[in-house]
TrEMBL record:
The lineage of its organism: Bacteria, Pseudomonadati, Pseudomonadota, Betaproteobacteria, Burkholderiales. This is Pentapeptide repeat-containing protein. It comes from the Bacteria. Gene3D superfamilies: E3 ubiquitin-protein ligase SopA (2.160.20.80).
């Protein structure tokens, strides 16, 4: 995997490569990105983060509606992100989706480990055969759609799944 090109805007005060507020019209593909701040960025014309690995990155308030967000995301912040209709895949480890809009998003065989969904909109989701291990769903605005054949390990309470299709769901204590 290649590295993300150096930002023409330099570094943020926190030492992240600064791509805040940019508009991306090309996919971020097959890249390994670390400590990159794409907060408030807009993905358009089919741009996505596909088959890339991100570690410690900020995607806060990013607009990635209806795009692919796949491979591996470790300790990334998607706080307030617009991910409605997104196609999620791969692994999300220690990621924060607080106050994000994930409505009508899709994920199959996706793994979420120690992720936060506090205050997120999870209406009309299609998260099929996914694993939610130690995830925090405190204060989720809406959770509806399907989590069929998924596995929930600790974190989620069965009441939070009441608005979802739960055929084949396995709930395990932590």
């Amino acid at each position: 995997m290649g590295a993300m090109p150096e930002s023409p805007f330099g570094l943020t005060d926190e030492g992240f490569e600064d791509y805040r507020g940019t508009t991306l019209a090309e996919a971020v593909r097959y890249l390994s990105i670390e400590r990159v701040d794409l907060s408030d960025a807009l993905f358009k014309d089919g741009a996505s983060i596909n088959e890339s690995e991100a570690k410690g990155c900020k995607f806060e308030r990013i607009d990635m509606r209806n795009v692919f967000v796949r491979r591996k995301f470790d300790s990334c912040s998607f706080v307030g992100a617009k991910l409605n209709g997104a196609r999620l895949g791969g692994e999300f480890i220690g990621c924060d989706f607080s106050r994000s809009n994930l409505s009508k998003s899709f994920a199959t065989d996706c793994r979420f480990v120690n992720c936060k969904f506090a205050g997120a909109n999870l209406s009309g989701i299609h998260f099929i055969s996914c694993v939610f291990d130690g995830c925090d769903f405190t204060g989720v605005k809406v959770m509806s759609g399907s989590v069929a054949k998924s596995r929930v390990v600790g974190g989620a309470v069965p009441e939070q799944l009441q608005g979802c299709i739960t055929d084949g769901v396995v709930i395990c204590p932590a």
